[in-house]
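Comment thread on ticket #2218

A.B. wrote:
> Attaching the input chain for the structure job we discussed in standup.
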Amino acid sequence: MSDPHKPEIPQPAQPQQRKEPLPWCCPKPALEDPECPDKLKAILNSPSYVPATRDVTFLQGDDARGLRLQMDYLNLTVCLKPMAYSIPLSYLAVHGLWSQVQPG
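C.D. wrote:
> Ran it. Output below, let me know if you need it in another format.
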């Protein structure tokens, strides 16, 4: 039973399949905005438009230090998981044994 005074909460949107593309998925047609294709090319070719995962300067900076540590820990976890090591990963990460147990 639903309360008629309580608003119904909709289900979350399907993240992979959409009925309509999101506005940023396709640029405006040139008929609607004649300058759009040139502006879009300028944005995509700009050095400031680099995805964070490919921006080496950003990834090596101080602001991404925590992220690099998380990625190192994830790398360690993923590499050691199939080997079924019984050494706790936190011990390996803290005591610097990663270089001794890397495969091949």
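A.B. wrote:
> Thanks. Noting for the ticket: The helical segments are 36-45, 56-60, 65-80, 89-95, 98-101.
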